[in-house]
Amino acid sequence: MKILNSKSKNFDKLLDNLLSKRKQKLKASSVSVTKIINDVKKNGDKALLKYERRFNKNNIIVPSVKQINKSIKSLDKKVKKAIDDAYNRIYKFHSLQKFKNISYKDKYKNKIDYKYLPLESVAIYVPGSTASYPSTVLMNAIPARVAQVKRIVMINPGYKGNQNPAVLYAAKICGIKEIYSIGGPSAISAVTYGTKKIKPVNKIVGPGNEYVAAAKREVFGDVGVESMFCGPSEVTAVCDKDSNPEWIASDLVGQAEHSDLVQCILISKDKNIIEKTREEIFKQVKEIPRSSIAKKSLMNYGMLLQVNSDKKIIEIINKIGPEHLELNIKNYKSYIPKIKSSGSICLGKYAVMSMTDMGVPGSNHVLPTSMSSKYSSGLNVSEFMKKISYITLSKKGIESLGPSAITLANYEGLKAHAESIVKRIRRK
Fold first, then answer.
1. What stretch of H or E contains 185?
2. E-strand spans in 126-207?
3. Whose CA is closest to 266, among 284, 288, 251, 285?
């Protein structure tokens, strides 16, 4: 892992270069997905099946109800209960994200209504194949259900025709009946443009690797996607001399095992805690099943930053805009008002990011990555709704307000606009 000290003259430049290196790597993925997207757009299920066979050794696009039920029956009861517990907490929290329609009426009896409407259809992308994330099903599907989306589709790559039973169970309790065993850019293309077996959707949401994220960028405009960039995971942990190095190391290693493009950053004023945490990371990363993936992530994009002041730490946090932020420090309350960019923030030593990743607290783990927290938020109910304005103008209303509109239309050189108003207020 790269070790940087804020006292160094070139600290800011080195940090910018390291952050930029990963961002450029993610952008480069866009080039390789275009061909796949266009192939599926043109050749439909035939092309889709070709890529499933190539990448997932999979011959099944639409798993049967019998196959799904059989898989769910094999699931351990403890796992089912854990999913049920997470479902209840996530549903309760997201149900509080209510929206209020607006109605405004002026003295001329002009009226403007602003109403929230659910989207007609969404596809939720749930990563799969080599790893399985039932928590991601809940995170995507529950806010869509709260928003009352009519058609929720799950796209989830299986391996050799098999999807994870926990993922299928999570889909079942969320009421998802349309499930496809597909993944990657080809799946994104299929739900965007449609095939004989798959009807297109209005919007695609959900996390994925760099290729999935690039594919969503590519099809945006033909279909809606989240307002955030939802790519490989990130965590930034801030700790002090009282932090537990073993705990902090496990937080970073836990995130690094997601993929070799994960960004793990540790920030502290205390040199000793940085060194002890580094030693713990080195020890712990050897002990996990996905060790090779975590090692690549930590070596290529991991950073240990010794920073000499709270002010500089906050400046760095806002520059990074991390997906996950852990404030494992005693004075975290003083940081809160000054942090402007982060997907979610875990406060104190017990608020561990892994808990939020599993969804048990109830907050959403589909969060902005690659600095997109500077302009967007984590997945929420509003992502599944659209707003429409309804305008009613009275005769007296257009006669009173029309002259101002005519003046502006003429100023902007839009003569026909002005005339369409004039015709309605011209007295016979």
1. helix 184-193
2. 151-155, 178-180, 203-205
3. 251
**Amino acid letter, 160:** K
Please give the Cα distance from 70 to 237 (Å, whole number). 42
Contacts of 206 (CB under 8 A, 6+ apart): 123, 124, 125, 126, 127, 136, 140, 230, 366
The tokens describing 181, both together, are: 């065993």
Which two structure tokens, joined as six digits, stand for 245? 């190095």
Mean pLDDT of the region 199-228: 93
The C-alpha atoms of residue 43 and residue 285 are separated, in whole angstroms, by: 43
Does residue 288 register a pLDDT over 80?
yes
Tell me the CA distances in angstroms from 238 to 41, 116, 401, 425, one per residue in order: 45, 39, 56, 64
Report the candidate in 205, 138, 139, 146 with the shortest Cα–Cα distance to residue 169. Answer: 138
Note the pLDDT tens digit of each residue in 180-205: 999 999 999 999 999 999 999 999 99
pLDDT at residue 267 tops 50: yes
Are 187 and 216 a contacting pair, CB within 8 Å? no
Q: Kindly report the backbone phi and psi dihedral angles of residue 211, in degrees, each rounded to the nearest multiple of 5, phi listed first.
A: -75, -35
Q: How far is CA 59 from the centre of its chain?
A: 29
Q: Is a pLDDT exceeding 50 seen at residue 428?
A: no
Cite the active site residues.
Answer: 323-324
Residues 6 or more apart in contact with residue 425 via CB below 8 angstroms:
398, 399, 402
Q: Is the pLDDT of residue 108 over 90?
A: yes
CB 281 within 8 A of CB 1: yes
**For residue 112, what are the β-bridge partners?**
104, 391
What is the model's pTM? Answer: 0.89
Distance separating alpha carbons of residues 385 and 47, to the nearest angstrom: 32
Residue 422 CB burial class (10 angstroms; 0-12, 13-18, ≥19): middle
